[in-house]
Amino acid sequence: TAPDGAELTHSAILRWIEDVYASGWTAKEQRVYKDTLQAMQSVLDDLTPLHSAEHGVDFDQLFDAVEVAPATLQEEYLRRIVEKQWLYAHELLVPLRYGTLQGLKSKGLVSVTQNTPVVNVEYDPRMGLVIDAPVESSWIV
User: Are 116 and 95 in contact (CB under 8 A)?
Assistant: First the structure.
C-alpha cells in the first residue's frame, strides 16, 4: 500500500515519479551529469587498443605467447572465417610461446593467413603442436 493507505498501483508509481521530476533536473543534478559524462568520455578517449606494435606495445609479447593455427587445421580455420564463425575459428587456435614462434619462423615453418600465424608442424589434438615434426603444407600464402 501507498503511504496514504491507497492501493499501490503502477499508475500511482508513475504519478509519483512525474511529480518528483516535473521540473526536470536541478542545476546540481545537471552539473553532476555533465561532469560524469565528460569524465567517462575522457577515459574512453585515453583507451588505446593493443592490436599492434604501432603503439609501442606488442600485445602477444606481454604474455610471451601468441595464438597460431596448425597447418593441418588451416583449411577448417579459413572455412570458419569465411562463414563468419569467428568464435568457432578461434577454437582451432593453439597458444605458442613467442620465442618458439620466432624459431619456427627462422626455419621457414610459419606463414600467415587472415593475420594469424600458421605453423607447419604436426598437431595432435590431445598433445598439441609437435614442434620438431614439420609437415608439408599444400597452401601457398
Answer: no
